[in-house]
Amino acid sequence: MGVSTRQIIERYGTFFAGVLLFIYLTIFADNFASVPNLLNILKQVSFLAILSIGFTFALITSELDLSFAHVCSFSGVIIGMLISDGVSWQLAALVGIAIGTVAGLINGLLVTYLKVPSLIATLGTSSVANGLAFMITGGVAFVGRWDPNFLFLARGKVGVVPLLVILMLIVVVLALVFSTQSKTGVHLQATGENEEAARRSGINTKRCKILGLTLSGVAAGVTGVLLVSNLSSAAPQMGGDFLLLGIAAALLGMTMFTPAKPNIFGSFVGALIIVMLSNGLVLLGAQYYVQDILLGIIIIASVAVSASVLKQAAFSL
Amino acid sequence: MKYKRIITALSVLAGSALLSGQGLAFDLGVVAFQMSAETHARCANAAEARATDLGWKTQVLNSNGDLQAHAEQIDNLVQKGVDGLILCMSKPVEADAQFAAAKAAGIPTISVVSGTSPHTLFDVQVNEYGVGADSALYLLGTINFEGGVLIQRFEANAGTRVRGKILDAVLEENKAVKVVGSHSMARTKSWRDDVRNGMQALILQQAGKFKGIWASFDGQAFIIDDLLKEAGYKKGDVSLVSIDGGAEVFRRIKDPESMMTATVSIPFEEMATAAVDSMKKIAVDGMSKEQVVAGPYLFMSAVLVDASNVDQVLK
Asked: For chain A, which ranges sit under pLDDT 70?
């Protein structure tokens, strides 16, 4: 039972492409492989990786969460408002994560009990979160030179390693272990792969879908905390651009390791490839529009490869 | 073997193409916060053009209005080791850590219409307070300091917010002018829709009750101008005044069908050019920052453009 070349390409093709990209950039982009730049890349990938891992949990249960970017912004705005009002940053951060969690839970309840397709339900939640963020801010960001301890979360270093990178790696490992080694994680995957079969085998599929979408909300809340810490400000659309990138990372992840299946490590590597490409293009001297063009090509290519699962997640009722 | 040779040759060619010009030329990084805004694009494009004239290698990045992307792009340029940074409409507070990293790496940074930072050499600015006053007084003058006006604001940007606050101060002193409707643009990414929806409602609701409209920047005024035309207004019915300048607003001021009355023209191209020239003096010619600009700002003058002088700026 040998593994065919085709299977190897299917499983590791994208990963090898990422490795080749790394080698290419190491050779042709000055400073790319320097330690400060590699740490810079890891720091930059943190936000995207955490968000895309959250999105992947929803996708594992065959549901889409299109609200995570605006929930992240809304969570950030609440944190900014609380800190500006003198609330301790620790409490504000907890409230921010709680908001993400509740938003995810609402998504889960809408999908499982009201039977609203996740594509529609999460678009609705996204719109509500966006509206609330603008209602609170009036469009004007909360900006301040806040408590250095809070800013340390995203800007601090442990030795030479940014704390943000350590936090991200903790999230990646926890998510990976949970999704592949725990009973609940296996139930999530079974629910996504064949809901009816999973239900008949005694798995509470409703609970699994609620959990998948809630974890996506948790990730949005955590990223909201880290973004506000990194930028020392909270704007109503601060997470908006992560929607496309987060989806792209998860889709890219679906093209490797377990082809056509959402997987945590794949999403992490997908996020890493996107950020590495973005950083490498800057170091190569590419103009801004080149990055958008390449990102679009990556999304189209990865969707083409993983289209069947995405279609199932987007349109299943 | 044949394929290996071809791949090697292609790699060398690609590498050579990418590395061409990476010799001793000054490497300038330009970051614009949101290139979809005309003023940001004018700043970045002018900086690039001037740097190219000087024989410099220039890389322009667009943050697409995203704060995190903006911070990351500055980080990436610092890692690239550019020789200088010019930031158009940047965010000194939000990207404070990145500004500090650039300074720590010895990269001189000049911002344009961004506000000052302890980590930059200086900020190239017009006096937004003066610009706001010019536009407000001009508008009120055209309606003889009485009657109703509509206001289109933008509070999320420091410059446009200041303009709006100065307008409020001018209105406070001129009680015969009544604000019959005010809309504040909140969304930066879909701002055109936001302005169109808000002002369309106000123009319909307050029809016949306003003689003037003030917009916090020209892009908003273009949308309002089109709405007024759609609503059947003719030149002279309403005075429309805003701020920024540029070819399109000058065209509209001259257009007999347009309500656009005046703009306070901010010389974004000259400001970006001055930023590049100052960078050359400091980073290439070895002049001290104080010899080039004494304080935290390099102020430049804005010019009020209306029918009386639009032909001069259109030349």
From this structure: 1-2, 303, 305-317
Assigned fold of B128-265: Rossmann fold (3.40.50)
Contact A139 B72 (CB under 8 A): no
b (16+ CB within 10 A) / e for A264-274:
bbbbbbbbbbb
Nearby residues of B21 by Cβ (< 8 Å), 6 or more positions away: B57
Å from B153 to nearest chain A CA? 11
Per-domain residue ranges of chain B: 26-126+268-300, 128-265
Q: Do domains B26-126+268-300 and B128-265 have the same CATH topology?
A: yes
| SS3 at position B241 | strand
Residue A302 lies in a domain: no
Burial class (CB in 10 A: 0-12, 13-18, 19+), B121: buried
Cα distance between residue B128 and residue A64, in whole Å: 46
- The shortest CB-CB distance from B186 to any of A47, A138, A282 is to A138
- Angle of the A35-60 helix axis to the A242-253 helix axis, nearest 10: 80
The Cα–Cα gap between B58 and A110 comes to 50
Q: How many domains does chain A have?
A: 1
* Mean per-residue pLDDT, B174-183: 95
Residues of the domain holding A115? 45-238
- Three-class secondary structure assignment of B251-296: HHHHCCCCCEEEEEECCHHHHHHHHHHHHHHHHHCCCCHHHHCCCC
Specify the residue for token string 């930031």.
Answer: B87
The residue among A221, A165, A209 whose CA lies nearest residue A39 is: A165
Query: Is residue A85 classed exposed, middle or buried when 0-12, 13-18 and 19+ CB atoms within 10 A define those classes?
Result: exposed
Kindly report, residue by residue over B205-226, the tens digit of the pLDDT. 899 999 999 999 999 999 999 9
Q: Which CATH class is domain B26-126+268-300?
A: alpha beta
- Contact across the interface for A230 and B68, Cβ inside 8 Å: yes
| A268 within domain boundaries | no
Q: What is the pLDDT of residue B286?
A: 94
pLDDT in tens, B132-158: 999 999 999 999 999 999 999 998 777
Are the beta carbons of A286 and B59 separated by less than 8 Å? yes
Distance CA B112, CA B270 (A): 11
This prediction has a pTM of: 0.80
Answer yes or no: is A210 within a domain: yes
Dist. CA B223–CA B242, nearest whole Å = 12
